[in-house]
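Hi again,

Forgot to attach this to my earlier email, sorry! This is the prediction with coenzyme A bound. I've pasted everything inline since the attachment limit keeps bouncing my files.
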Amino acid sequence: MELQRLEEFQIDAQTEAAIAGLLCECFPEYPQGRTYYKQLPDFRYLCWKAEQLIAHMAVEHRMINNAGAVYRIFGIADLCVAEAFQHQKLASRLLTELSLLGERHRVDFLMLMAKDHGLYLSNGFQLVANTCQWLLINEHRSYGVAHRRVPASLMVKALGEKEWKPGLADFLGHVF
Ligand SMILES: CC(C)(COP(=O)(O)OP(=O)(O)OC[C@H]1O[C@@H](n2cnc3c(N)ncnc32)[C@H](O)[C@@H]1OP(=O)(O)O)[C@@H](O)C(=O)NCCC(=O)NCCS
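Structure tokens for the complex follow:
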């Protein structure tokens, strides 16, 4: 098994097709042939076995505003593992790799939105109840700024000493 971290601009057409295939398999509603919902991420983790892509995680490096404090974060999107390889702690390994990377490079928090929290709670994330503000994008068009509470979705993991606060979580961009 080979674990790879690739910057988005380095991804070639063949790798892009492999990512699009896995995303489609894992998320049936994913836009066909695409490797992102709203916007390109900054980098991705890819896990290969005998030239088959078996796990994927996209990451955005961004500043966000949490109740007036500005933090460096890694936003996680499209974490998935091919069905035949699930329940072998592959997703947990990708989350651990990202935590280590963030700790080495002054990232304050990992952030993500999820409906099912099991995987993330067991990997050090907490569910938070902030009102959120984010740029609304749909099919390559901007539609303004949303400002609302998203019940039981936003999860964060502190990588350093900084404390997550209640209050507004302003994504300063689209949602992951
Ligand atoms: C969620 C997913 C990435 C987990 O991958 P994995 O390699 O099996 O994860 P791990 O082995 O590290 O951890 C498994 C645990 O995650 C939890 N889990 C299972 N499905 C989950 C899901 N959809 N979301 C969150 N947690 C989940 C369970 O507690 C599971 O424990 P178990 O193995 O004892 O049943 C994988 O099931 C998947 O790709 N699902 C389809 C896509 C998806 O829903 N992605 C999450 C988007 S937020």
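The chain has a mean pLDDT of 97. Residues 14 and 20 are 10 Å apart (CA to CA).

That should be everything now.

G.
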